[in-house]
Design goal:
Structural class: alpha+beta
Largest sheet: 7 strands, antiparallel
Number of strands: 26
Radius of gyration: 25 Å
Number of helices: 7
Shape: elongated
Oligomer: single chain
Helix content: 10-25%
Strand order of the largest sheet: 1-26-25-24-23-22-21
Length: 509
């Protein structure tokens, strides 16, 4: 065997070891979201074993089982196909397959890079003995298929109601992400003079035309329910960004309801025209629109003077206690720091509060003494768990104008992900939702606090599988509702609605 073939054997051997490391990281990182970890680990181990045995140096001698022309096609397909598969798994689909993180990505890249080098050598030299390894590499998607078939997480049986609301590849969009939810309470008088006989749920999402990336052609859509989430209206597009023949992103929906004026406000961002890159400059302009009839129709958007303030995403609040009674507060972030904008004149003008100095993708809740509680996401690369783990939080004594120094609540374990916080009642009750795993976006959980967030004494597992962003709401009868991203293999497959009954252990008095 010549030196070149020996080099290729070593390349294949190290590639198999890197693939074994990838399977280990992949399985261990996502184990909380798998329904049968031993079977999935066995599948991965079997694939690595076959991968290694396909190395002709281990089987001994040369192999002529594949015709030379077929071998050339296999080598070319490996050299071209693996980069495409890698980019789809880690860039184009934005870390969506379950939840990849850096160690898994690096080992996968190393394994396939070594195979690509060997395939290019074999293609140039006209070799055919390495064709089995190319076949195994290209059939790696079979492993993922079996993982998908083995994993079948289901929502909790303790839910009062559960429905998939925005499903990928439906209504003309490939993907839906970034949920927003607002409950307009029964009896509310709208600005147009109508009165709500029941609670109205307004659910929103980013409808992504071509995939899960945060860039590209993205619209805002909504559905409305007037019966507690049992039935929903047809999907309605409420924001599309088009300019000079180009199409960009309308996103980060953050609604707030002014109960005094009967006006539903929706803050959102426009971006992507002309800059539309996964990394680099992506300027966001801030906009707001209003609805006088509870979200049935919307006005034209108005630009706000807060360039590069990214809203929510999620929902805003209206202050129910002093100080600043009646103030509308919208969460946002700018330059790597969480903050809020607020209005004291029913949405006519808006002002920005001081920056927290840390965090992004924050949400706000009012505490029983009138202070504001902010829960914010760590500013950290997606795929790396925050260290030390937990949720950033801070209090404001002046309704969002300034903030005390941020602290870390280590009991709220989390990957790098958005979360939702909501005031449950007037006696210190809060709810918090997020994927409650320290590494992966899995295990959508709602927690309850009876003392303004000092302790989170109760929890309810809504969904054990892949889950991402979420939004909480409270119905007039005391039930909690949740809009959240979920799927079997990826948290971006759909956005589902769940209703947690007041009789559950989470909400029981």
């Amino acid at each position: 065997m010549n030196k070149l073939s020996t080099l290729q054997i070593w390349l294949h051997g190290f590639s198999a070891l890197s693939m074994a490391a990838f399977v280990y990281f992949f399985v261990s990182h996502n184990a909380p979201g798998f329904t049968n970890v031993p079977v999935i680990a066995l599948l991965g181990g079997t694939y690595v074993a076959v991968f290694l045995l396909a190395n002709p140096g281990l089987l001994g001698g040369r192999h002529h089982i594949v015709p030379p022309n077929v071998s050339r096609v296999l080598y070319a397909a490996t050299a071209l196909g693996l980069p495409v598969l890698f980019l789809n798994a880690t860039v184009w689909d934005y870390y969506q397959p379950i939840s990849l993180y850096d160690d898994a990505i690096f080992t996968l890249a190393a394994s396939w890079l070594l195979l690509i080098i060997s395939s290019i050598i074999a293609l140039v030299k006209g070799q055919d003995q390495f064709a089995p390894a190319a076949i195994v590499a290209l059939l790696g998607t079979i492993f993922v298929l079996f993982v998908h078939m083995t994993t079948n997480p289901v929502p909790s049986e303790g839910l009062q109601h559960h429905v998939d609301l925005f499903v990928g590849e439906e209504d003309g969009y490939e993907n839906y992400r970034i949920p927003a939810l607002l409950v307009l309470p029964a009896g509310s008088l709208m600005a147009d003079g109508t009165s709500l006989k029941t609670d109205r749920l307004v659910a929103m999402a980013e409808a992504r035309l071509n995939g899960a990336l945060d860039t590209g052609a993205i619209d805002l859509v909504q559905k409305i329910s007037d019966d507690g989430g049992q039935t929903w209206s047809a999907q309605q597009v409420i924001c599309t960004y088009r300019k000079d023949g180009e199409r960009g992103k309308c996103g980060n929906a953050t609604p707030v309801f002014d109960t005094r004026a009967g006006v539903l406000w929706l803050a959102y961002n426009l971006s992507g025209i002309p800059d539309d890159l996964p990394k680099g400059p992506r300027p966001h302009s801030a906009h707001i629109m209003r609805s006088a009839d509870g979200g049935m129709t919307w006005s034209e958007g108005v630009r706000l003077p807060f360039d590069n303030v990214v809203f929510g995403p999620g929902h805003g609040i209206q202050k129910q206690l002093a100080p600043a009674l009646g103030r509308l507060v919208l969460p946002g972030n700018s330059a790597g720091s969480a903050m809020v904008i607020y209005s004291d004149d029913r949405g006519k003008t808006w002002q920005s509060g001081a920056a927290l100095g840390a965090g992004n993708e924050n949400e706000i809740a009012e505490l029983s003494d009138g202070r504001l509680y902010m829960a914010a996401r760590h500013v950290a690369p997606v795929g790396r768990p925050p260290k030390p783990n937990g949720r950033l939080y801070a209090h404001s004594l002046d309704a969002g104008e300034t903030w005390e120094s941020p602290q870390l609540d280590s009991t709220l374990q989390t990957p790098v992900c958005q979360a939702s916080v909501l005031r449950r009642n007037d006696s210190g009750g809060l709810l918090f939702s997020n994927p409650a795993d320290p590494k992966a976006r899995v295990q959508m959980t709602v927690r309850a606090s009876a003392d303004d967030g000092k302790n989170w004494s109760r929890s309810f597992l809504v969904y054990p599988g892949p889950a991402g962003y979420s939004q909480l709401g409270m119905l007039s009868g005391g039930d909690a509702v949740l809009l959240y991203e979920r799927g079997d293999m990826a948290y971006s497959e759909m956005i589902s609605f769940a209703r947690i009954g007041v009789q559950s252990a989470l909400l029981a008095p």
